[in-house]
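Hi W.,

Here's what went into the run:
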Amino acid sequence: MTNDSVRSSVNGCIVEATHVSRIFSMPAGPVTAVADVSLRIAPGDHMAIRGPSGCGKSTLLHMLGCVETPTAGTLLFQGSDVATLSDRQRSLLRLRQIGFVFQRFFLLPMLTAWENVELPQAEAHVSKPERRRRTQELLEYVGLGARADHRPSELSGGEMQRVAIARALANRPGLLLADEPTGELDGATGEQIATLLDRVNADGTALVIVTHDQGLAGRATRVLTMRDGRIESEVQS
Amino acid sequence: MAFAWRSLVRQPARASLGVVGVAAVGALLFDMLLLSQGLVISMRDLFERVGFDVRVTASDALPGQGPLLANAVAHASAIAHLPSVRAAIALRLANAVVQKNGARGQYTAFQGVAGTGAHPWTILRGHDIGSGPDLIVNENTSRRAGVQPGDRVTVRAFCSGDTQALPPVPFTVTGVAEFPFDTPNGTTVATSLDMLANTCGGNETGEADMILVAAREGTSPDAAAAEVVTIVPELRVFSNEQVVSRLEGGGFTYFRQISTVLTTVTLSFAVLLITVLLTVSVNQRLGEIAALRALGFSRWRVVADVLCESILIVGGGGLLSLPLGALLAAGLDRILKRIAGIPADVHFFVFEPGALQVHLLLLVATAILAALYPIRIVARLPIAATLRDEVIG
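Here's what came out:
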């Protein structure tokens, strides 16, 4: 499942954040969302980020996913300083190396499950036969091979999140980022999604999950706890 | 484009509204383009169909409203002998009352011609005039005065500047003809210039309102006009194109100005309509768009999708606008042609390929212009903040 180029990245590290901060300019004055955070994510890592609402978890996740750039510090993705990359380069990086899973799934409602999974591959100019093969493989991987022709409105919440995970894995990213992936799901369905994410990680994809769910966080081998934009603690198991 | 199409059809009511709106606006736009040049094209076509390329008059006034050409028949004869000229006829315009068997008279336009060329009318029934007291009538005169070829009628003329009551003159109707400049309800009769002069009291022999000149094949109307000027330098000589240009720069300008104003207004409405529809659509999909950007879709890709949606709406509406515009133009043309004095063969809305090209160009510009604001929203969308807001929302 992982991208070979990621495995061979500099220092064996996918992402390396060194004293990164993210400050937002607001009308009432600057707001520090992330302050002086340093961390490394290696291939195969399984990390959970916890903390109260507004502590900077999602902002850190977005920085790790190259959606946002730090206002201070250095963020290296496969050895490249993200701050020096153009918007187009960062888009390409996200397309080929990073997968995103969102709390609200954000599947395209006019497309079927198959088409949603195929879409990032088409954007990455993957050949049609390879797309077909990969999409079939992914939908079966997430247990939705029989529901490929269903639109999101015809799927349950858990099924939609499975499709979203398949979509995130479409271009074989080395890093999968999930922001409250079980936040919209009931306990049993959330458990199924957690199990699926465990499997994705076990198959070699580094996984970073932002969550309030203690059960989901407890499955990670590294649990970061954030407060006021800083890493308060890191527990490894 | 396929992706944009799928995005559009997920809200069929909104997409349909956009397409129908553009179709309506596009139809108006198309009609305004047809109107802007319609009269000019139609008049040019009519002049060319009459078969004469050059007009000679005594002044710049419209035919029938200016002074008569003295020695018109002699001038026409001299012009007809020019190397670049195939034929020339003198044409005089007057009015008359045509009466059959003492019945109520029919007021008509009255034309008299002399010269070497074919007469400026087309015989429908009977035969053309000869040298005697022959009279050609148009269909309206035939119907209203109840006259047919072979009937004997009297004609009382009303000639230019003539205030005295002229005596009726007997004529024989030889045929029914179509006159190119007839209005839909207009009545016209015609005879030889000599007979018209005779009916006018016989004091204006050889005078006419204009001389119509046909250029020889292979000779340009402008060359013929230039040659005509050399022998009648005191007269006004115009090629058909010059007459059309004068009309274009005169009364017809109003149609172009009206057309320009209405075109601008209709295009503004189209731009506003599509901008609003696309902006609403984009605002409803901000989360999806931010997610796509997070998944690695480039800024250009999401911008292109919005542009394609705009093109699809405008393209669909634009296609519908053509038949709709044609129907509307036909209806409006019928209404406008009720204006008194408009020849039946003149049209206000005339199709020409150039109008279609301009229509397409304006629609493409509309699609691009209308997409600018929603494109700006998409292009400047802050991915992380939008994803955060969507979750909080």
